Amino acid sequence: MAGPGVRHHVDHLGRAEGGRLGCPAERPDSRIHQYRQTLDGLKLVGKAAWDPRFAQALNLPQRPTDPPQTWPEGTEWLIGDTLYRSETLRRRDAVREDGEWKPVWDAMEKLASQHGDDNVRLVVWFDN
Description:
elongated, two-stranded antiparallel sheet, 128 residues
């Protein structure tokens, strides 16, 4: 049983939807993506729903808000040597086809070949 303040989210993903890993999320990620300049170009160094340096530079509340604030995709702020950017994730950003979920995708594919794409669903429960 979850404790106070823990929220759950249930998501359903059909086999046909799983094949569209390039589909974007409905809105930009609430975590601001942080990059640093390297000799090879920008390098992602982290993502955070709240960052004290970012909050101070933008004159935002000094504590995380609920729900987290979002900005239009592509909005950028250069603060010191860190580039902060609002980005919209794609399914493949969160779950790679060849990653640790590959056995699940393979099983869904086998079931779909027997029962049809519309008859195979994956139900996932997320705690945060």
